[in-house]
Amino acid sequence: MFRHFLGLIRFSHTVFALPFALLSAVLAWQEVPVRWPDLFGIVLCMVFARSAAMAFNRLVDRRIDAANPRTAGRHIPAGLLSVPAVISFTGICVAGFVLSTLLFLPNWWPLILSVPVLAFLLGYSFAKRWTMWCHYWLAAALMLSPIAAWIAITGTIAWPPVLLAAVIFFWVGGFDILYACQDAEFDAEAGLNSIPARLGIRSALRIAAISHLCAVLGLFGLWYAADLGWLFLIGAIAISLLLIYEHALVRPDDLSRVNVAFFQVNAVISLGLLVIGAADIWFRAAVSG
């Protein structure tokens, strides 16, 4: 049963969001002292928030998933998990998220913002029913992670987490458009909204490319605004090349490698950005110290 719940929320895909929150924390710890409860709070909040959002999405979309051949094998349509069980799991994750914000006390902002943030995350599940720009609702949900981590640690806001959030917004929006190309025909027939379904795959790929160009510009903006060093600059260039490679994998007449672009390349980008960011900060601190 536990294994089914991990599969339901695709727990391994937490790698797409958690590294950005941790990188924001590393940047924030240049401004304030490190507190271990803050680190535990960030990890727990990210895991519970994403788990709640994914489980809720599977509940809301269970009939759509059952009708789509690509998703008919998911846990609820396939009968591996019952609706009441997933509702209970979602409730536990919601409670876990809110309670985890208490680790940031005496900073009350995480607790105050926990409910509106969670409502925004869960709201994404309905976006595809009324707007083709649903990909950027998901992107906005994930871009909250570095901003939330910064606020939780410092109680303030600053340019570095905002620029990191911009990188996430355009990066996630772009790769979610690529992923949605697989369901363009089904979405159009089912009356669901997505950029590939509304504008066609060729136009969707162009929009995704523009989105990723904006992500690259934001990445170099972060390097400049956060006064990062040559290690981060090399990483930014490497990530730019990976995004070019990602788009080379997907063509309007060949979507067979979408999953490679979505899972493998994006996992490398997410984890790589955390590693190079932390390494750059540590190296400069060691040199100056």
UniProtKB/TrEMBL annotation:
Enzyme class: transferase
Subcellular location: Membrane
Gene Ontology biological-process annotations: ubiquinone biosynthetic process
Gene3D superfamilies, A to Z: UbiA prenyltransferase (1.10.357.140)
GO molecular function (one): 4-hydroxybenzoate polyprenyltransferase activity
GO cellular component: plasma membrane
Residues spanning the signal sequence: none
Family under the similarity heading: Belongs to the UbiA prenyltransferase family.
Name of the protein this chain belongs to: 4-hydroxybenzoate polyprenyltransferase
Annotated source species: Stratiformator vulcanicus
